[in-house]
Amino acid sequence: MLPGIRIIATGGCLPEKVVTNDDLSKIVDTSDEWITKRTGIHERRRCVTETHLDLAAAAARQALERAGIDRAQLGVCLVTTVAGDTITPSTACMLQKVLDLPEDAACFDLNAACAGFPYGLRVTEGLLTEDRPYGLIVSCEVLTRLTDYTDRSTCVLFGDGAGAVVVQQSPDAPEICAVLGSRGDNQALYIDGAPGAGAPYIHMQGQPVFRFAVDAMPRCSLAVLEKAGVTMDRVDWVVMHQANERIIDHVIRKMELPPEKVYKNIARYGNMSSACIPVALNELYEAGRLRSGMKVLCVGFGGGLTWGGCLIEIGGIS
Ligand code: ACO
292 falls in which pLDDT band (50, 70, 90)? Predict the structure, then answer.
């Protein structure tokens, strides 16, 4: 059996600017009522002066300070994102510099779209070693700069933010039992990347993505629980990707989840892609609702189309 990892600290950073549904109704033909009813979103954050690196570094610093670890023992600095300031260098490489991380730590960005955080945990679990047992995972997205503010079907959904965790490998930590997958699809959800392909905006066919999500999320969640040999009554929190409150509620109904175990913050931040799950974990931590020994089921889906889930234990938090 592989040694597993535990989350020992969290951090987060959200840009200051709040964009309400009423603000958006002044620039596109929409309304607070439509957005609230169809998505559950009331407001989201938008970077004005903050860069991707600013958000990532602030979230990472907070997590590292709370972890109180010797940074020399950090083996991995992994950033999940679809929207770095530059294609290269990666945000993770720039974090190595601004946070003064060891030069021999593996630093790289990972793009699994909104499923990035469970992907990042699994990759980190595989890279850590006994003598370098700590990993930093930062999920940071500035989706508003990839948003077409003339397209009402997408511009109401997305926001910016960053969440970070420090994980520790330990021989007595359970494996995270990640379930990861993808279904090559370049139509339902994509962002242009090739030069000359057009403005790099998020293009999405809402209904196919919705149908994919309500199938993939319960399937992935159940597969993680089966792999871990754990039933829902032993899970303390379920933290899902926050794309649409109707998707989350569908998963609650389909899996018969106790609603009080399912954390939601979509009303305040909208869809921050891979940052949704760690931002939620950080809110749980700051509210004193994460304690050592708790098990958290994290599950996400996104462009690709990707899905990813895992069951991770909390450690070192009293
Ligand atoms: N305001 C008012 N009307 C709107 C808006 C808006 N912002 N957007 C669309 N409409 C209209 C449409 O034009 C359509 O009008 P019509 O009936 O006259 O043609 C009507 O509302 C219904 O449109 P639908 O697309 O059918 O609305 P739906 O109920 O499917 O909701 C939504 C759209 C919210 C996008 C939903 O499909 C959804 O959440 N899909 C999943 C999206 C998702 O999960 N994305 C994230 C995945 S990955 C990532 O996070 C990057």
Answer: very high
